[in-house]
Specification:
Blueprint: H1 21-26, H2 32-50, H3 54-72, H4 78-89, H5 91-105, H6 117-128, H7 138-153, H8 167-184, E1 185-188, E2 191-195, H9 209-214, H10 219-225, E3 227-228, E4 245-246, H11 255-259, H12 266-270, H13 283-288, H14 290-314, H15 319-331, H16 336-351, H17 357-371, H18 373-385, H19 393-396, E5 397-398, E6 403-404, H20 405-425, H21 447-485, H22 490-531, H23 536-540, H24 549-558, H25 576-579, H26 582-601, H27 607-613, H28 618-622, H29 643-655, E7 672-678, H30 687-690, E8 691-692, E9 695-696, H31 698-706, H32 708-720, H33 728-739, H34 745-767, H35 774-781, E10 782-788, H36 791-794, H37 804-817, E11 821-831, E12 834-843, E13 848-850, E14 858-860, E15 864-867, H38 878-886, E16 893-896, E17 901-902, H39 905-908, H40 911-916, E18 931-938, H41 943-965, E19 979-981, H42 982-985, H43 1004-1012, E20 1017-1027, H44 1033-1050, H45 1054-1062, H46 1065-1073, H47 1076-1102, H48 1107-1144, H49 1146-1158, H50 1161-1182, H51 1201-1224, H52 1237-1243
Helix pairs in contact: 2-3, 2-6, 3-4, 3-6, 4-6, 5-7, 5-10, 6-7, 14-15, 14-16, 14-21, 16-17, 16-20, 18-20, 21-22, 21-48, 22-41, 22-47, 22-48, 24-26, 34-35, 34-37, 41-48, 43-45, 44-50, 47-48, 47-50, 47-51, 48-49, 48-50, 48-52, 50-51
Amino acid sequence: MVPLMPVTPYNYGFPSLGSSEQSWRTQNFSDAGRRSEAVRMVCERLTRRLGFQKQSMQNQVEHIQALWESFMRRYNDPKQAMEVLCGQLLNTQRSWREKVWAQFLKPLRPVQQVNHPLRDVCLFWLIWGELGNLRFCPELLCFLFTAACELCDSSSEIALEEASEGSFLEEVVKPIYHVMVTETFDLRDGRPPVFKFGQAPATARACNYDDWNELFWDPWRLKRALRTKTGPVTSTARMTSSRYYRFIDTCHDSVDIWRKLTEVDWTESLRKHKTHLEFHSHLPLLIGNYRIFLLHTVAFCSLCCFWVGNLGRLQGLGVHLWRDHGWLIQASLGLLAPAWMLLYQIGFQALTPCLARRNRLRGLLQLICIDLLPVISFVALVWQHAQPEGVSQRFRYIPWLKVPTFDVLLVIHVFFSVFILILALGPRSDNLYRWKFYPTMSRPDCIPSGAFWLLTVALWSFFASSGTRYCSQAMLRIWDMYDSIGLPLPYLLGVLTTMVIVPTVLVFFSTLCFFLTFSISLVGSAVGAYRLGGVRLMCTRRGMGLTYLPETIVGRLLHLPPHPSRETGLWERFSWWRRMSDRELEAFVDVWNKLLQELRGRDLVCDRELEFLSFRSTQEAFQGHVPRLFQALSLRATLPANGEARRRIVSLARSVQMDPLPKAKVMDMPTLSVLIPHYSETIRYSKKDLFSDGVSNDLLRFLIKYYRDEFRNFIERLEANDLAFGSHGLEAALCEWASLRMQTLWRTVDGICGAYAHALEILSQYQAPEQHGTKAAVRQRLQVVVAMQQYAKFADPTGPGFSPQELQAVEAMFTSFGEFLSIAYIQEQVVDGEKRFYSCLIDASCEQIPIEGFEDVYARRAKYRVELPGFPILGHGKSDNQNCAMIFTRGEVLQMIDANQDAYFEASLFLPSALQEFCGPEKTLKGRPGIVGFREHIFSAVGLLGRLAADSEFTFGTMIQRTLDWPLNSRFHYGHPDLMDKLQVVQQGGVSKATRGLNLSEDIFAGLDLSLRGGWTVYKEYFHVGKGRDMGFMSVLSFYAKVSMGNAEQALTRQWMRLGLHLELSQLLGIFYSHIGFYMNQCLVNRATKAFCFAAVLFALAGEAQESFSHLAVEMISSYFGYFYLLFVLASMLPFVFETMLEEGGLAALWSLGSSLVALSPVFSAFQSKLMSHFFETTLHYGGAQYIPTGRGLATQREAFLKSFRCFAPSHMYDALEVVLFLAFTVPVDYGALDYSPGSWFFHGTFNTDV
């Protein structure tokens, strides 16, 4: 533990808390030791002054030192590096201080600010490190930081007063946390908090992190909210109620704000500050995305009007109707925009309880005076048309224009309708709340996304036009038959018309998503062909033409320092090994052989292939003895036999030729922290997992059979190492071999620590040959943190969660990867009768504590132990676990990796280039992206359903992600391999959200908040990691159920409402249909199916009275709805086929298509679609979203029929029985040539019924 220094304003020549800018400028920080000492001194003074925890301070000292050194690698001047770090870290706070703090302080006197970057950085991280769950409220952090700055800026005038250790946590953080946790949880002595609402969602009025955070966006709301029981300092101070005073009135000046935070009654101050109601219904979805529904409504009604008029002229249908009421139908189109604006304005005000009265009045005035103008003109138009013939001439004509009044009103109505429609389709104001602080979104170029949607709408218009044509024709025939029969039943006419319109509307609204998929397939393939290398991609995917690879790797990846080049003659230039210098050839040979050794270590190649593909020595390479793979006439047969080994070599050849590829060196790259959350995932297989009674179990037998060639290579490797069968070493090796082929934490950590570290070491070895200790340099730049939430329970021999097997697996990880690995965990302990919670960190240097009664079982003593304000797991677990581990990350860049992923050596060579994406020239955050996304390789294509799930994930991670990035500009964050700028995400509340239920899909909110705060994401394809997916029937469908529930909850959030209101229309369409709109589309498909069935039954029964009605059913089915289900099947398969054709060739695409059809992939897609629609719609109406632990192991057990029926009865079986019952009534109807329509029902996941 670092000893406390005496309280002295100046020590060792380092500046005090309130020292001037000149004092900061005069310090000398050229030496790393002086920089470290300066950080430690400043943090110690702040800790004594403000009452932070000592261990939290020591943790942040190490953190700040690492960040400063990271920036020092790009800026030679230490002061400039710290100033840039400070500018990026406090970018949000400085804006907030100017807009909110200055107004909040009035009429108090602010303290003159002191420019002290080092102190500000230290103060920010010290406060941030102790907030616990309060870190999800970034503007609350700004408030506390700014108040502390006011105190520190005045410390030169005020005597220093020491605060007791932990007083900040006890007196400020815990009271605020207590208010937040009691909002939705019941606190019980000795037990974790219990959610008040059980399985139901929290009430719409319950506040969450976003509501409390947005209280600090408006200075006037904040002034009224903060209350204290302490008496005022002036006689003019006002009481907010019979017992409370405004907090600001109790302060003499801005310095008093920090001092008197302990007097604030946070329970009274933070209650009833709801800014957005998460109301479970379709209303938030309709309000936030009203422009999309308005666009569909206008398009549908316009097409119907066009076809009604056109059919009347061409076929003589509905002539009487169009002659008498055609103008009225066309004029009523102008009422669509006012109707949606009325719904939007009322709904927005209903869902926004914090909206000020003046803003509500402004919205209503805009609605009445502007948005409803077409209604007024329409009423005037109808009134004018209804005037009798003998009305006065002055009403029928405008005297000075000699033009009929009706014509003038018609022109005015058309103008108002078009004008309001354009206004309605445009984005709303960025700050509808009129708050002083409201982050503004960045505005990307809309031309590419606009052109993309023109293509999509052009494709969609053919189908949409034909659908509305048949709908209009059916309606006109119904009306004509009704007139000809003369039935005095107007309600029957309304029912029949509705039965025609409803299925058509549902199909019309749902098919745009299908055509979006077609456009993504076309545009994504074109963009992918350009990004992946163009024409050269055709060669590299076959392993041909790799003679360019050595020179490309040296020139684009290794970035060697200047060195003598080799002089060659004309003949020598035809051979690549003669064109390369000695240093370049040596570097490439070393990198290539390292790759082959990595493949051999994973048992992907055998010893013979290793010898065949390797360079024997650099000297022989100089003489032209190179592997056949790099000779001019090399063929595909020269690649290894193992498919994974071939893929990895081809992937390296493809990635190295992509443009743009940032030029980067290891010594200059930002520091990286990889964060891996872990709860109950398998760490490493043990003997008990693979053997039963001394005999291999089903899992091991399956792995040996499925990975037959790799197991043969494994045995060959063991025999070469003289490892006899039956020994302990064989069992350990077999456990590791099995762990590296399943979705285990061991595989993830082995990939990250092994591949990343080895790649960076070999790069730095050749990029900086003068640098000694490349391993130490890599350790400074790479950190792996496993957020193992349950470690304390694993290590407690008295608790039910005690697991010697897990502890041994953890120790094995420290033994193998201890140079880079740290483990963060949550510990609970009873202190003075009160249960306290701590966020702890251990690494390989921590002391081992033997567990009594168990041999070779150890726990570790924590290196850092930071107390939390209370029980931290208030959400669904993962986001809170990440939040607790975040304080132990050292890197400037974060990578979020799940415990079912892998990394590869050849891909890790691109890691410096990936990190270079964040190295912008700006001192603020405007010049660098917040998130950089990358593709994934799905390695879990095991079994039929595992392959289907892998194909779906492969398509999403490549084709769809690529198109979302460009041209749609609609990509957010999806976890997995994404790199995140930590300096940006800490200013928006962290890497995820943690409100129970509402933030079930926690990862995507990092991208949502980043976009809403003016940041952006990019997507690159030169770097990738491995990813495992679910492989069993129940686990795959459970995953889609969880994702559907998460998207339903997203639709209710303020983030989605603000995106829907503020984005440009072209960007909004891309974001909507690639996220919540996709799941809504599944609901529309399901509803369209049932509506079509009911319409078919109704018309079939009506045909008993009038045969023409049954003809209508036949025509609608044969001409329209059959193609609808064909579109569904194509949309589920086309992107995967196009991406496979792009990366592997046409034959591979045809083989994948054929195998998918044979495996009934469309049937499974339809079943999956029905499941998603059920859970999305149910959660949207009733809430109750819950995390579903799917488990990612092999499906080696059969599910009982009764269990399966109970699981899928509400979502599938009941609707299927209804459909069968409906179709039973339509059996006598002759559907003519429509032979494939019964099959389309089967594809929809119900039953295969002959009609």
